[in-house]
C-alpha cells in the first residue's frame, strides 16, 4: 500500500486515542475509570468524524496505516 499523508490533527487525535487506551489498561480498579472512558469516547468520536474520512478513496487500510504512523510518531515524541 502506498504511504498516505495524514493531516497533523488527525495524527494527534490517533495518538491521544492510543494514550487513552494505555491509561485505561494501567488502571487496575474499576473506580476512577469513568473520566478515562469518557475521554476515550470523545477522542474516538473526533477520530472517526474527522473530515479526512469523507474524502473518497479512504478505506480500512488507511485507518490501519494511520495507527501505525501514530504509534511510530508517539515513540519518537516519547524518546
Protein model, in words:
The chain is mainly alpha-helical. The protein has one domain. 67% of the residues lie in helices and 0% in strands. The chain contains three helices and no strands. The radius of gyration is 14 Å and the shape is elongated. The termini are far apart. The mean pLDDT is 87.
Number of strands: 0
Q: Kindly report the average pLDDT value.
A: 87
Instruction: Name the poorly predicted regions.
Output: none
User: What's the number of helices?
Assistant: 3
Strand content: under 5%
Q: Which structural class matches the secondary elements? A: mainly alpha
CA gyration radius, whole angstroms: 14 Å
Helix content: 55-70%
- First and last CA, distance: 28 Å
Number of domains: 1
Shape: elongated
Q: Order of SSEs, N→C?
A: HHH
What is the makeup of the main sheet? none
Key terms for this structure?
79 residues, mainly alpha, 0% strand, elongated
SSE topology:
Layout: H1 8-26, H2 34-48, H3 60-78
Helix pairs in contact: 1-2, 1-3
Task: Give a brief outline of the structure.
With 79 residues, the chain is mostly helical. 67% of the residues lie in helices and 0% in strands.
